Amino acid sequence: MSVFKLPTVSDSQSGWGPVDLSSQFRDIPYAPYSKADKLGRIADWSAPEGTQGKDNRGAGGDQRGGRTGFRFRDNYVPFGSNAANAFNYQHTEDEASFSVVDNRSAAQKKTTGFKSASSQRGGRGGFRQQGGQQRGQFQRLGANRGGFSGGARQQQGGQRGGRRGGYNNWRDFDRNQRVRDASVKVGSDWTMLEEIEFSRLNKLQFEVDSPEDIALHGAVGTYDKAYDRVTTKLEKVLQQVDRERDNVTTSEDPVLSSLAAEAVPEGEQRVFATDSIIGVLMTAPRSVYPWDIVITKTGDKVIFDTREGSQLDYVSVNENSTDPPMDTGDKDNINSPSALSLEATYINTNFAAQVVNSEQVVELENANPFYNADDESVPLVGYRYRKFDLSTTEEEDISLFIRTEIDAVVKSAQGEDSYITVKALNEFDSRAQGAGGAMEWRQKLDSQRGAVVATEMKNNSCKLARWVVQSMLAGADHLKLGFVSRSNPKDAARHTILGTQICRPKEFASQMSLQITNGWGIVKTVVDLALKLPEGKYVLVKDPNKPVIRLYAVPKSTFEAVEEDAEEAEAQTA
């Protein structure tokens, strides 16, 4: 057993300090020091890298307010460094040829410690980087122009933004991190086959020729032009219309099912989907919230479906905002993401039915495939089934059948009917968390319509892009947007219409920097991937917290039990 022996301690009776100089320090020369030097910790492992040995305010602390430098107490100066020192290390001639291997500039070197939110996002206030997150990544992948890559320019912009706006956002790191749950729980018996980042999807390009119309079903009403005269001073109450619109999935569509049951010509491969599903795929890089699509492969046929109660059947609110709505766990919170989604879906359904004149109805070639003639309430909606050719070579023959929707008909000056789609943007509370810096529509909508639309493009980039894509898939000539707000910000049940705006889908897409060829490139990639899979069931899942989509192989019985339970619940309710 080792014995602990106390060291010898010399005690000076006449003063402070050592009694005698130890032999091991006898030959070391004396190092002078200055009274202005700060005495701090011997080693501070918590201080940010590069701050040791620096005094930002000088020896006297903060000279502006006469303070003693309390805020900068962790910026230490090596003992004796301010004095004239003859003991500084000098390089010798033998080291003149030495060079550092790491020749990166100081702006590119990684630093530690906290950064402001604006510095991390880049630019002034961080808007440009947050609104175009994926675009910023591709700038770094591009070629150098003018001696700087896009990433270097962006990084310098981020540093400038950090210096200018970092003080106001110094608590951004302390915000609650948005960790969202997945739209579907990944089972233990699921097998991941592919993982595709959004950065790869943004590089895809594919052009599709004009589609071929297969059939027209349903009936559409004429748009009531009286709603074009609605303003904030002449607002109209949003009414609840007793006409429900069912989002029937692909496999339950009788028209698409009959096309899938037909004998496929030799060498042809067929894919079936709805405009909602294709719109989600084409705008996938803009999506933030999770979603999933069920894929069924049978022979040379592929069917894209949605689950019962899928998020694709609902409308999101401020999904792309820098500070989106947050779920606080309070069931009575009317500004939570789920509550806002239900509210937006309710508004879109009622607005599309209210602005249509039910007395002037245009019957299409075929009846509504989802309702009987004896039904009391049949929604006025037209279904346009179209065929798109996704073939790239003469040997390849891939046909994509899509069910698209038409909301109304507008009479042109020549008396011709033109199809339009009707959607509604909604305002909940400009002062609530998650509003995304939106203006008060009742004050700014009439005078600053462009600014209001630009804010909606920023906060709802994915939703608007999906609406534009669906309008283009349906071949609609115009997209009618309505502006609907709560009558009272604290009441999510009563709404008023404050105005409308009509636009052409192609022009609106160019204003949003939406490339349709990129969307078709994503669809083409997913379709080719699905056609190469063996027969079975698969699920394409968007990661809830990362810009990634994953393809899983799942058992054939997946989701069937949930759908049976939902059907039994509906039967019991009826």
TrEMBL record:
This is Eukaryotic translation initiation factor 3 subunit D. Residues 109-119 have a biased composition (Polar residues). Its main location: cytoplasm. InterPro entries: eIF3d. Keywords: Cytoplasm, Initiation factor, Protein biosynthesis, RNA-binding. Residues 130-140 have a biased composition (Low complexity). GO terms for cellular component: eukaryotic 43S preinitiation complex; eukaryotic 48S preinitiation complex; eukaryotic translation initiation factor 3 complex. Residues 311-325 are annotated as: RNA gate. Residues 58-68 have a biased composition (Gly residues). mRNA cap-binding component of the eukaryotic translation initiation factor 3 (eIF-3) complex, which is involved in protein synthesis of a specialized repertoire of mRNAs and, together with other initiation factors, stimulates binding of mRNA and methionyl-tRNAi to the 40S ribosome. The eIF-3 complex specifically targets and initiates translation of a subset of mRNAs involved in cell proliferation. In the eIF-3 complex, eif3d specifically recognizes and binds the 7-methylguanosine cap of a subset of mRNAs.
